[in-house]
Amino acid sequence: MVPLSFAGHELMALPEGALYWPARRALIVADLHFEKASWFAARGQMLPPYDSLATLSAVAALADRTDARELWCLGDSFHDSRGAERLPDAARELLTGLTARLDWHWITGNHDSALTDPFGGSIVEETEVDGLLLRHEADPREPRPELSGHFHPKLRVQVRGRSVARRCFVATRTKLILPAFGALTGGLDAHHPEIVRAVGPDAQALIAVEGRLLRFPIAA
Fold first, then answer.
1. Which candidate, 160, 163, 88, 82, places its Cα nearest to that of 118?
2. What's the rounded Cα separation, in Å, for the pair 113 and 152?
3. Predicted structure pTM score
4. Is the separation of the CB atoms in 175 and 12 below 8 Å?
5. Between 89-101 and 51-66, two packed helices, what is the crossing angle to 10 degrees?
């Protein structure tokens, strides 16, 4: 975990693309997209049906590693609002175990706006926690400090002469966008105009790696 100061709060950025909030013992993730594979399969594009279990296993591992007591999902936790109905038994069992032992909060997104009763936890459209606004999609008009997801930001960097795409956080003084945490999620280039529009000028792409937080300016 790498220290990341944001809006007066000390957070920790994890290489997996999550945030840990030590003061609250809270783990924050975005865009899990459970049951994306089954959604595509129903439309004729067959994908390995293990994405939900892989994503939940990764969440469980981070919860254990950080000893978290809260967990906040910043929207699009399911790929569609009926994804919860398709969740396999093994993933369902793991999820209900997690919601039973953690103070779990689902923030709805554009993919799962009609989410209801997803195996425990509370469901809200957005909320404010200790002065930080938690929502799915960044609002360029919002002056309050804000944590969000939605855009799945990635950054392409040169590593030993090779071009490598890495998931990244996108940050300004008042906005912090998390990368997608789901096992079967794509990414939008951090320089994309929609991301720049959402966060405004003076943004940076942040990559947590090997105990360091690498910072790359994003051109407005």
1. 82
2. 18
3. 0.93
4. no
5. 20
